[in-house]
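Intended use. Records like the one below are meant for learning the mapping from a protein sequence to its folded structure. Do not use them to infer anything beyond what is encoded.
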Amino acid sequence: MTQRGIVEKIDGTQITVSVVKTSMCGDSCASCKGGCKPDNQTVQAVNETGKLLHAGDVVQLQTETGKVIGASAVVYLIPLVCLFLVYFLVQSLNQSEIVCALCALSAMLVSLVFLRIFDSYIKRKNALLVRITDILLRKGA
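Structure written out for the chain above:
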């Protein structure tokens, strides 16, 4: 997956890059009347260009598409699977609808806590490594 970003801060080998998240309809927001508004997200990146970076440089970022899709699937599917699995499991024990719903919601909340722990693990291991592969525009150039 390739994106563009602007170098915000450089602290040794830690490079903070601001990435504009694109909307669902692509990059042509001016011609779209959908009302969505893409926002910025900051990420930590590794410089693989071999060139010195400066704050304000526009860079090309690369991440492994398979890992991004896998992480997205985990984030969206695990809470849903937990919700339905626990609901039907509790229902099979002949419990009332209220008990089934409360247990299912509790399971979904527990899965969200698990995902929060999983997120910190991913960040620690740099499993979704963002790499700077090219400098597209130098600041002031």
